[in-house]
Amino acid sequence: MLQQLLQQANFLALTLANPVSMAAEQAVIAGHTRVELWDSGVLVFTPLHTEATRDIVLSSGIHGNETAPIELCNQLIQAIVSQNLLLQQRVMFIFGNPPTINNHTRFVSENLNRLFNGEHANPHVASNGERLRAARLEAYVERFFMAADRQRLHYDLHTAIRASRHERFAVCPYRPDKPHLKQQLAFLNAAGVEAFLMHHEPTTTFSYASSTKYQAEAFTVELGKVMPFGQNDLTKLAAMRQMLVVLLSEREFPRVTYQPDKLVLYRVCRSLNKHYADFAFNFSNELPNFTQFAKGELLAQEQGIAITAAQDGEAIVFPNAQIPVGQRAALCVVADPAIPLA
Ligand SMILES: [Zn+2]
């Protein structure tokens, strides 16, 4: 398998041909970079001629139909394998849910990005492909991060189901004891991320698990709207690609200045949870993420009970009524330039 990767430099094709599992293998590229295949969609590169200063996880395809970040990561892997990108840092690439990439769907049995931080082992829910995959991905991330005590970074790359008033935005995991870093926000901002949403509670997302378990600087990064393979305009991700190349190929963290006038900070004020099967939003499926409402405007209803905007400027992100009862149907956020950063 690894020989095929080294010859053809297409890890995505190899992954999709072996979507459930692949035997571990390793090799060295031209004496300078070790490449380790850990499983289907899981690949680790370690530079051998330098002591890396950070361990970086770049995950994509946690939802199989979110193809732009998968293509971006496959290009980065191709550049490393073909020696056009020489690493100074250790990096793990993850294509999260290969069977769903083959199916062109968000998931097979359930949303993989609700199964991390141990939720995959919930004894009250029957196991399935996503639960097994979440358990394995958590174990791989642990093995990757715990190998050394370096700065840990995890960018979990997605695209959103609907359009957004901010084309690219990031979700910053809840970490009450430590403000998020201006350095990280400036880096993502230089990569084209326009808005940052500070989460208000623990979750079971991939980025939250890396943040809380390994103190990684971890983010869920939304890079535009879902499109099928071949229909992505990757020029829109040129800045992201460029910043990731610098991150991987230089010893120092990319030097960028935090510019508060170039981004918007949002605070999550509440989650709207679906309590009954008839939960429905009062706006169209085309409503972009971050659309603002006036206080008292009707947002949704269930069982004849109205759910209204609690304050002026309250905006809705990730609305999705087609989820199981008990799950989050949307996040409500407000812009808040006074969020503390370090
Ligand atoms: Zn996603």
From TrEMBL:
The keyword Hydrolase applies. Binds 1 zinc ion per subunit. Zn(2+) binds at H63, E66, H158. It catalyses: N-succinyl-L-glutamate + H2O = L-glutamate + succinate. One of its GO terms (molecular function) is succinylglutamate desuccinylase activity. Its cofactor is Zn(2+). Residues 53-245 form the Succinylglutamate desuccinylase/Aspartoacylase catalytic domain. The keyword Thylakoid does not apply. Its EC number is 3.5.1.96. Keywords: Arginine metabolism, Hydrolase, Metal-binding, Signal, Zinc. Residues 1-23 form the signal peptide. It is an enzyme of class 3 (hydrolase). Belongs to the AspA/AstE family. Succinylglutamate desuccinylase subfamily. Transforms N(2)-succinylglutamate into succinate and glutamate. This is Succinylglutamate desuccinylase.
